[in-house]
Here is the input.
Amino acid sequence: MTITFGDWITEIANWVFLAIALPTLGAAVLVVSAKNIVRAVLALVVTLAGTAALFLMLGAEFVGWTIVLVYIGAVIILFLIGIMITRAPLTKNADLSQPISMRVPAALLSVILFAVIGGAVAASFGGAAIPLPDEATTTASIGETLFTNWVIPFEVVSFVLLAALIGGIALARQDPAEEGEV
Here is the structure.
C-alpha cells in the first residue's frame, strides 16, 4: 500500500509530528551554529526534549523518559557545571571559528550525506508503511528484565559512570596552589 501526500496530511498525528519535529530541527541547527556556548547547550535541551517527545509519540515511553532523565537531567547539567568550573569564555572565540570557505563545503557535504542516507532509507522501504507490532514493549517488562537478568552489569555501569564523573571533576578543577607548580 502506497501512502500519498494527501493521505499523510489528513492524519492529525502527522501534524503533531510536524509541530514537534520542526522546532527540534531548528534547535539542532542552533546547537551547531550558536556563537555562545550556553545558548548552544540550551538549544541542545530543546533538541533533546523534541527527540524525547517524538519517542513518546511513537509509544517508546522508556526511551523517551530516559532521554529526559539521563540526557536533559544529567548530561546537560554536567555541561553547564563544566562550563562554570572551567571558567570557559562565554563570548565568541576567534580561534575556534572557521572561515566561510570551510563552513560552506562542510554544510554542502552534510546535505549530500543526508540526501544519500535518506534516499537509501526511502528506497529500502519503497513507500510502504512500516508494520507495527501487535503489542508494545512496556516499561514494566524492560525494568523487570533489567533488574533480574542484568542487575550486575547495570550496577557495574553505574560505578563506571560515577568514577568518570569524579575523574572529570578532578581533571577540570585544580586547586590554586597546584596551578603554579606545573
Observations:
- The mean pLDDT is 82.
- The longest helix spans residues 61-86.
